Amino acid sequence: MLYLTLFLFLLGIGGFFFITTRASVILFESRKSRPDNHVYWIYRSPWLIWLIDRQFISSIILLFQYSRLVKQVLDQVGTSGSGKRVLQVSCVFGNFSQRLADCCHRFGELFILDIMHSEVRHARHKLSTQRQQAGSHYLQADAGAMPFQNGGFDHVISFFLFHELPPAMRQKVFDESLRVLKPGGSFVYGEFHKPDSPLVRRLSEIYFWIFEPYARSMRQWNPTATLDTKAWRINRVTVMGGYFQVVSLERLSTQRSEVGAVLTAPLDCRRPAARCHATGTREVLPQGVA
Ligand SMILES: C[S@@+](CC[C@H](N)C(=O)[O-])C[C@H]1O[C@@H](n2cnc3c(N)ncnc32)[C@H](O)[C@@H]1O
């Protein structure tokens, strides 16, 4: 009886995550083409975001390596210098943004960008302390076409975004993340990698096959292989026998930059991302969008 109850419980949880991830993407992709078709239901519905954005759930999904991975990312970002401009590419469940924002008394400004309005609003809600809020900006935009000039950020950071993107968008987001970096700045990302153990590799493939429709194509994707090593310093740290990686790409400062105002054109994000466009207002989440 106990085993049956446990089995049904796990089946229910698995079914719930299947419906809110892979199955929802199948449904959204059958609609008219939109840049956010690939985004899971769990990042769309404020109610689901509220339900699932729990630290212990994020920790379980990352096999209890969440804190360690966040620390690795923050370590790569470093602690030196004030007045820095940091971009977080897409929102993250758990306390990632809070920890990043807590570093921001050492930085100048933190920009958090996400394609879903519900996620941007949730991130703003999570950064609750005054110190976290100071210098934080929120932006609804597609990371594959960022509304920033070249070379405006000291650090660009993404945490487990790439495996949730279709291959063409994945490469665009990667290219955009490098484009907006200042010379001397770094792009740091945490992601799944290639487990050393064939058994773990096989099990992770099954997990991706069920829940993460785009993650399997990550194994063939190696964006750092095409980077010019005279222009980029590449550092990769692996965690848990190669299951996870934290990659840091430092743009060597010999490159030309076109640093200027950060936003090429301010956005009015009361509109859906697909129609998000310049309006002349700098406020990213205007007053009244709670
Ligand atoms: C960072 S990823 C997943 C992170 C991690 N699995 C978690 O538990 O939060 C999820 C976020 O990426 C966002 N996202 C997906 N595609 C995007 C894009 N093209 N541009 C900006 N944000 C995007 C989604 O809206 C969602 O908020």
Task: Provide tags for this entry.
single chain; 290 residues; Rossmann fold; seven-stranded mixed sheet; 7 strands; disordered C terminus; binds S-adenosylmethionine
Q: What can you see in these coordinates?
A:
- The protein is an alpha/beta fold.
- The protein has one domain (about 65-275): 3-Layer(aba) Sandwich (Rossmann fold).
- Helices cover about 35% and strands about 20% of the residues.
- The protein has a seven-stranded mixed beta sheet with strand order 3-2-1-4-5-7-6.
- β1, α5 and β2 (about 110-115) form a beta-alpha-beta unit.
- The longest helix is centred in the first third of the chain and has 28 residues, at about 1-30.
- It starts with a helix and ends in a 39-residue tail after the last strand.
- The relative contact order is 0.13.
- Bound molecules: S-adenosylmethionine.
Write the layout of secondary structure elements.
Layout: H1 2-29, H2 46-52, H3 55-61, H4 66-77, E1 85-89, H5 96-102, E2 109-114, H6 117-126, H7 130-133, E3 136-140, E4 153-159, H8 167-179, E5 181-192, H9 198-211, E6 232-239, E7 244-251
Parallel strand pairs: 1-2, 1-4, 2-3, 4-5
Antiparallel strand pairs: 5-7, 6-7
Number of helices: 9
The top level CATH class name? Alpha Beta
Identify the quaternary structure here.
single chain
| Shape field | globular
Q: Give the strand order of the largest sheet, numbering strands 1, 2, ... along the chain.
A: 3-2-1-4-5-7-6
Looking at this structure, what is the CATH superfamily?
A: Vaccinia Virus protein VP39
Q: How large is the share of residues in beta strands? A: 15-25%
Q: Report the CATH topology name.
A: Rossmann fold
| Estimated helix fraction | 25-40%
Q: Strand-and-helix sequence, N→C?
A: HHHHEHEHHEEHEHEE
CATH architecture: 3-Layer(aba) Sandwich
C-alpha termini separation? 47 Å
Overall residue-averaged pLDDT value? 84
Q: What's the structural domain tally?
A: 1
What ligands are attached or bound here?
S-adenosylmethionine
